Amino acid sequence: MPQLSIVQLVELTARALKRAGASRAMAQAAAQALVVAEAEGLSGHGLSRVALYCRHLREGRALGKAKPKVVRRKGATALVDAGGGLAFLACAMAVKEAIARAKRYGVSFVGITNSHHMGALAYHLAPVAQAGVVGLAFSTSPSAINAWGGKHAFYGTNPIAAVFPRSGAEPVVVDLSLTEVTRGKIMVYAKEDKPIPVGWAVDNDGSPTTDAKAALTGSLNAIGGVKGAALALMVEVLCVALTGAAFSFENDSYFEPGNKPRIGHAILAIDPAALAGSDAYFSRLEIMINTMLRDEGVRLPGARRQKLTAAAHTNGLQIADAQIAELLALAGKKSV
Amino acid sequence: MPQLSIVQLVELTARALKRAGASRAMAQAAAQALVVAEAEGLSGHGLSRVALYCRHLREGRALGKAKPKVVRRKGATALVDAGGGLAFLACAMAVKEAIARAKRYGVSFVGITNSHHMGALAYHLAPVAQAGVVGLAFSTSPSAINAWGGKHAFYGTNPIAAVFPRSGAEPVVVDLSLTEVTRGKIMVYAKEDKPIPVGWAVDNDGSPTTDAKAALTGSLNAIGGVKGAALALMVEVLCVALTGAAFSFENDSYFEPGNKPRIGHAILAIDPAALAGSDAYFSRLEIMINTMLRDEGVRLPGARRQKLTAAAHTNGLQIADAQIAELLALAGKKSV
Fold first, then answer.
1. Which residues pair with B173 in a beta bridge?
2. Helix (H, G, I), strand (E, B) or coil at B154
3. Residue numbers in A near B199 (CB within 8 A)
4. Nearest neighbour of B295 by CB, restricted to A147, A234, A284
5. Cα A1 off chain centre by
6. How far is the alpha carbon of B272 from chain A, nearest alpha carbon, in Å?
7. Crossing angle, helix B50-59 and helix B24-39, to 10 degrees?
8. Which residues of B touch A238 (CB under 8 A)?
9. B160 Cβ neighbours under 8 A, 6+ residues apart
10. Is the pLDDT of residue B336 over 90?
11. Given B107, B243, B271, which is nearest A107 (Cβ)?
12. Which of residues 174 through 193 in chain A touch B, CB cutoff 8 A?
């Protein structure tokens, strides 16, 4: 497995995306996000997505020449239209608006409409934490979870992310989808002909199943069943009803031929200076973290990603031969 | 079981709370909330709590003469100090601030510090939906969930609630705690000497257990394990680090002698008029609901509560004899 630097990987990925039709800025923003996810150990949102993005750009499901625009500003809120392009430029624009408005008004809420797959959700919040601001992010995705009691996939995996800046340390990073497990995990069980635990998925009749193959034709369970489904509904309203985007059930799967997804995302930013004040916030947060870590075995959310990223910046990343070959082919290059 | 009207029950409950030391306004606000929860079928947050509130008022863990105050206002945010009283007047004050600020700035975030048990969380958001505004609420509680990987209860049950106003129909209401099940449910299993399913709780060594009795000396599992624990962390920061309240792990159990809880809550309000606009919001939301309900077996979150409440307003509520006797004793009355 060849070892490549972050810079080399970003360059190669950006070249592949440009070749598929993305503008220089869009390609650069997407490449950066995908390589960071790979570095963080989130390979499902990393280089494995490059081929998919290229296909969507070629098929016009993602518009390579789209330029995101702030289409509405009101007080502490704004709405960004991604113009049907890849999500990353639009998310960066939304985050910039969110930080500025949170600093001015104490809190801000920025919606993004007409967008596409946003990758690892917490990635977008890094500048929020950098600015000393608390950030939350929400997104929908093509449907994966049944409405509670139903037979058909209705909600997306609908991730929720949050960053909590610390004084003199890396921020606490929360990033999770609302499904009990990923579809990828169930595929591994199906391949090995192993039963899955109760509670992971339902079959295409909406009934709980331990048959991995039946689960793959059905839907994923939300965390806590009815509770996670309710949280998924909340994410749909925040990302879609408020922004005018398309609901999860209106999105075709990314992996089959289909429509422009018109995904919605939302960013919430809160300036700790606004309420009890920055001093109270930073000192209370450290007390929480110190108490938490006194219980042996507890690790801080986000710490693993941060460690892996730091190592990747120093040592580069080992990338499987097949992955490199795919990237080179997409980039139209013979070698790195 | 006697049948009492909502009005009778509120009067009786308010009298009990006043007798324990609550001001007229505090007693009235708390009684209203407890009886509504009872009417909604949420008996765990209903009349069963009256005796506990009275005890806390008598012991000074909740201050009956406290007057909540807005102690800070900045742009779209505000901070309410509950003054150590019961939560309900402070929450109502915070919600009023949140609605006004959301109407003006598009979004608002209001923290509440120095508070007490807030009952059924979604209750507080009813005026938000009434004003045509989207509302979310968060609260901590005395610790119940281990930090992921830990041995000791650290986070509260940390409920999340949301209301989504509809055009010409009751709002959609989401209201859930982040534990897989309630402690009460495990107590039923322990009483019947039945094993609990894997995933509900851990023993006092932090290990998964199916022994209901071991679970009761341990901690509750969060929905989705590590995921729900991360959401619980998010709720702690929003309700406590930002407001200066006490963390869940700093609260003594309500059911044993202990400290003033100094609980934190947070209200987020978003005006649909601010982003894609009210028309887009209401029409998109109805499309979501109609599509959802086409899948047989699906019911709308909040619908059951609304139906039960409507019935209670018409028919009154059947209350167990022992519960009535307790209320009468607390209120110092011989009969209703």
1. B163
2. strand
3. 199
4. A147
5. 27
6. 6
7. 160
8. 134, 270
9. A231, A234, B121, B136, B137, B138, B174, B175, B176, B178, B231, B235
10. no
11. B107
12. 174-178, 180
Closest alpha carbon to A209 in A224, A223, A199: A199
A5, β-bridge pairs? none
Closest Cβ–Cβ partner in A136, A174, A270 for B230: A174
User: Is the ipTM, as predicted for this complex, more than 0.85?
Assistant: yes
Helix (H), strand (E) at residue B310: helix B303-315
Domain A67-179+222-301 part of CATH 3.30.1370.60: yes
Give me the pLDDT at residue A336, please: 87
* Nearest residue, CB atoms, A111 vs list B243, B268, B275: B275
Question: What would be the CATH architecture of the domain defined by B1-65+302-336?
Answer: Orthogonal Bundle (1.10)
Minimum mean pLDDT range among A61-65, B32-36, B204-208, B248-252? B204-208
Burial of A103 (0-12, 13-18, 19+ CB in 10 A): middle
- Residue B184 pLDDT: 86
B233 in contact with A at a CB cutoff of 8 Å? yes
CA distance B220 to A199: 17
Nearest to B244 among A105, A164, A276 (CB): A276
For B:70-109, CB contacts with A below 8 A are 72, 74-77, 79, 104-109
A–B CB contacts, 8 A cutoff, strictly below:
251
Closest to B80 measured CA to CA, from B126, B124, B33: B124
Q: What is residue A1's predicted lDDT score, i.e. its pLDDT? A: 75
Residue pair B22/B30 in contact (Cβ under 8 Å)? The answer is: yes
Q: Residue A104 has what pLDDT?
A: 98
Residue whose entry in the numeric block shows the structure tokens 């040592």 = A315
CB-based contact B239:A46 (threshold 8 Å): no
Residue B83's region, left for phi above 0, alpha for psi from -120 to 50, else beta, is left
Which residues of chain A register pLDDT less than 70? none
Tell me the whole-structure pTM to 2 decimals.
Answer: 0.97
| pLDDT surpasses 80 at B1 | no
Question: What pLDDT is attached to residue B170?
Answer: 97
Q: Which two tokens stand for residue B160?
A: 């999340």
The shortest C-alpha distance from B85 to chain A (Å) reads 19
> Are B241 and A272 a contacting pair at CB < 8 A?
yes
Q: Find tokens 């082919």 and name the residue.
A: A329
Note whether B107 contacts A109, CB cutoff 8 Å. yes
Which residue in the block uniquely carries the two structure tokens 């606000």? B29
Q: What is the pLDDT of residue A2?
A: 80
Domain residue spans in chain B? 1-65+302-336, 67-179+222-301
Looking at residue B236, what is its pLDDT? 98
- Mutation target for B interface from A104, A221, A284: give the one with most B CBs within 10 A: A284
Going through chain B in order, the beta strands assigned E by DSSP cover 3-4, 69-74, 77-81, 107-115, 134-139, 145-146, 153-155, 160-164, 172-176, 201-202, 219-220, 263-270, 317-318
Q: Residues B97-132: pLDDT tens digits? A: 999 999 999 999 999 999 999 999 999 999 999 999
Residues of B in contact with A224 (CB under 8 A): 176, 178, 180, 223-224, 228
**Over the stretch B272-318, which tens digit does the pLDDT of each residue have?**
999 999 999 999 999 999 999 999 999 999 999 999 999 999 999 99
* Token duo for residue A303: 């710490």
In A64-144, DSSP assigns E strands to 69-74, 77-81, 107-115, 134-139
